[in-house]
Amino acid sequence: MGSPFTIVLYADDSIEANRIVQHCFALTDSLVAILSDYIDSSELNRLCARAGTGEWFFCSPVLYEIMQDSKFAYEKSMGSFDISLGPLTRLWRKARKENKFPADIEVKEKKALTGFNKIQFDTARHAVRLLQTGMQLDFGGIGQGYIAQKVIDYLKDQQVRNALVDASGDIVCIGSPPGKKGWTVAINLPENEHELLPKQLVISNKAVTTSGDLFQYMEHGGKRYSHIIDPATGYGITSQKNVTVIATDGTMADWLTKTCSILPAKKAKALAESLHASVLVTTIKKGKLVYYMSEGFAKYWAQ
């Protein structure tokens, strides 16, 4: 996936543990080959190549499942999570790489190619079609959490009871390390690579993800634009904050962090609670840390 992918598990037999881990990485590679927008031959890119042709694309079970997950996320997030932003994410990816801020007209042109309402589903045949030429889907805000969850599900099937999967910060875990109540997870301070929040999380049988602009951002005109794009504007959000979500599965935790980064704190908390998830928004105001927490988040702090 072009990013670190870590598996930690505990087992009684090292040979068996190694066999299981090798299967986990093979599973990961197979999912990346379906979902990546970086691989020309991926199933996702083969779907997008048919955009605007009127043809239905018959999806594999994996692709159709994550498409349905994305539809659920789009509807629950009131449109703030949208996998159809592919043309914009590619534009901003290039802009960050070349350190060249795109012109307003470029953003407008790419934004015109987006819109989840331009995706049609055939639920009986598990087929999808994209109605506009030039459309490009992007699973960057949901795919890593989805893959981490699939690896954890496989580990459960292999009777592994204590494991953690970390897909570049999208963490899903079961059980706990020996002698511990859960897995300890630290959170960076907003915009700080080396300093952590004074408190740490302890989680078990949950997923946790943190989003912010620590590593992927662009500065222009005195503003810092995050890699998280607001579908309403076509631009990266400019509010400097970290958003941490704890949810029942990795897919939900992944997309919820992106959505809660865009929504106002009050709406973000309400959405998380409606999905039985917990959210923490951390920001710095006048040099001081400010927290906005949904009900129930505090129980995950290490005692």
The DSSP helix count reads 8
SS-derived structural category: alpha+beta
State the low-pLDDT regions, or none: none
Strands of the largest sheet, in order across it? 1-5-6-9-12-13-14
List SSEs in N-to-C order. EHHEHHHEEHEEEEEEEEHHEE
Radius of gyration: 19 Å
Distance from N terminus to C terminus (CA atoms, Å) equals 35 Å
What would CATH call the class of one domain? Answer: Alpha Beta
What's the CATH topology name of one domain? Answer: T-fold
Based on Cα principal axes, name the global outline: globular
Give a short synopsis of this structure.
By secondary structure, this protein is α+β, with helices and mostly antiparallel strands.
3D structure, described in words:
With 303 residues, the chain is of the alpha+beta class. It has a domain at 169-300: ApbE-like domains (T-fold). Helices cover 34% and strands 21% of the residues. It is built from eight helices and 14 strands. It has helices spanning 14-35, 43-48, 61-76, 86-98, 104-111, 143-157, 250-262, 265-274; strands at 5-9, 57-58, 119-122, 127-130, 163-167, 170-174, 183-185, 201-203, 207-211, 217-220, 223-226, 241-247, 278-285, 288-293. The strands form four sheets. A seven-stranded antiparallel β-sheet has the order 1-5-6-9-12-13-14, with helices on one face. A three-stranded antiparallel β-sheet has the order 2-4-3, with no helix packed on it. A hairpin with a 2-residue loop joins strand 10 (217-220) and strand 11. Helix 1 (14-35) packs antiparallel against helix 6 (143-157) and helix 6 (143-157) runs antiparallel to helix 7 (250-262). The protein is globular. The two termini are 35 Å apart.
